[in-house]
Target: N-acetyltransferase domain-containing protein
Amino acid sequence: MKGPTLKGKKIILKPLVIRQAENYMRWLKDSEVTKFLSNDFSSLNLKREKEFIKKSNRNKTNLRWAIYTKTGAHIGNTGLHEIDRKKNLKASWGVMIGEKSYWGQGLGTDVLKTVLKYCFGKLKLNRVELGVFKFNPRGIRCYKKCGFKIEGIKKQSVRKNGKFVDEIIMGITKDDYNKLNKKYVRQK
Model:
C-alpha cells in the first residue's frame, strides 16, 4: 500500500511512483549496490519493475517508499514487509541506497530512525526485524546504532553468487526503542 510522506533530518520518504522505475533498474543492475540484497535481479527489466511498483502500491501488508534527499535527489528505497497490525504487531524492514555517491553520509541511519518512529508511533507496532549478511558491517553498525540487537543467525539461509551465506537476524521492540529515545532526549 502507499505510505504517507515521512520527513527525517536528512531525507524525505515518498510513495513509489512509476517514473522512478528507471532509477531502480540502474541500481539493481549494479552488483555493488545489490551485494547486500537477498533477491536475484538478473532477470529484471523495465516492464517488470514498473509492474512491481504498481503491485507494491496495492499490497496491504507492505509499505514501500522512495528515498529522497532534502535537495530532491532520488537515492534509493525502503520498505516495511509482512506488516502484521492485528495479532503480532510486527513488520520486517529493508533499505537500499542505490546512489553510491550518497553512501557513508548517515542517510540510511536517518531513513531507519524515520521509519521506526512511524512504526512505533503511528502504526503501533511492537517489533521491527530485519535480516543482514555478516559481510555488511556498515549495515550492522547502522542497525545497532538505531537500537537493533542481534537475535540469531540463519545458517546458509540465502544463496549469493552460487554460495550459501548466513543471514543475521536483528530486531528492536517498542520498549527498547522508547528506552533508547528517552536516552537521546536526556543527552541533548
